[in-house]
Design a protein that fits this description.
By secondary structure, this protein is an alpha/beta fold. The chain folds into two domains: 83 residues, Urease, subunit C, domain 1 (Roll), CATH 2.30.40; 315 residues, Metal-dependent hydrolases (TIM Barrel), CATH 3.20.20. The strands form three sheets. Strands 15-14-13-12-11-10-9-8-16 form a nine-stranded parallel beta sheet. Strand 4 and strand 5 form a beta hairpin. Helix 7 packs across helix 8. The longest helix has 18 residues. The chain starts with a strand and ends in an 18-residue tail after the last strand. 55% of the residues are buried.
Length: 457
Amino acid sequence: MAYDTLIVEGKAVVPGQGVVEAAIAIQAGRIAALLDPQDRPAASEVISARGLYVFPGGIEPHTHIGWMGRSMDHYRTETRAAAVGGVTTIFNYLLSKDPLDDLYQKHRAEADSRVHVDYSFHFDGMGATQLARLDHYRRDYGASSFKYFTNVGDLDAERRGTAKADDAMLVDLMNAIARLPGTVLEVHVENQAICDEFEARAQKSDRNDQALYNEGRPPLAEGEAAWRSCYLAYKTGCPIHLAHISTADTLDAMRHFRARGARISAEVSHTHFTLTYDTAKQFTLKAPPIRGPEDKEAMVAGMLDGTIDCIAADHTAPGKIRAQRKNIWSAGHPHPVLPHWLPLLFSEIVHKRGMSLVRAAEISSTNAARIFHLYPRKGTILPGSDADLVLVDMEKEQTVDPDNMESDADFALWEGWTLKGWPVRTLLRGRTVMLDGKIVGEPGWGQYLRRDGAPAG
């Protein structure tokens, strides 16, 4: 038979199988076959991957697009950035204290004509309003992941427009999700009472550095909330996913309760496995903040030994604000990562710390697909899977430059770093969307992904 596309002469990184020399046949947007590397069946397009590795497309489980008044056009700019960084699927958050139906429709209307990669949503799970609608969100919108913030006090709830944290409500939510097969609760673990007091003390200092922000939102605030959340997950039987973990204490909590049968997964952001508060060049006020060298090393170790399941940018599209990033307490939350998503993993963890290519594919794609119920449609290179593929030159070195990011951001936390290992071609469902760092696909090729087995709609 004649195929739509044939990728030849490359090495496919296939989780569960290893690095495989094979010709990859694509038909109707999906992997049709992994053929003998010498096979050359007829195809409308033949792509040479000589000297390259073919990875499953990256799955980014943590973005904030259109949140708190940010531009909806970031669905266009930041999915361009995603394709540059080797990401073919993103997860965005729908967060509100009100029913999410209108917000869902608004984001779908804004995103569908703009996205360059596929996308899905995590739904707010906080408060009685959302708890009562879990079945509805799953049935009607294909939602299978819900978010809970342990760090939302009264002021934060008003600012974010979400319900505030309540441990009794968290237990009710965990019990409800435990009764819904195929769902998972994402938890931002941080003790806000500790952060409020320690941050107030830190703001009295004359210092203006990243280490001070770490003192204001200290590692123990995350560790305490992680132990509490893991314990509640263990007692309720609820599968949980810990967002952007950053401390050794959190890893200890995960290991303790996993050993007792709790279903706990976790992600780590690029800032937390590449930077410390001494090496960060720009202020970044994400919660949790950038930590010290001991916690950074704990994150790297957790990536290598399998405790940490996936990487997550926690990408927040910032706009043109370089000039505003001078004071740590007023710098806001901008956090552009997507353009360097895979290069940071390859350069800092594969090349420098010895992570295998198969493990890199698992932590960048396969595990997130499994956790968030997209596998095997996404996250692998097997017959029947979507042909979401990234061709990578593992020897290519390039310097991080904000002018080459395709993002709306005008700065990069890694500006000036030379990274080794770059995507040179990104395919989404068989179609090339990025070639040699440039976007070649049209906006709107990306699709919304339901995660209940039903078609997109």
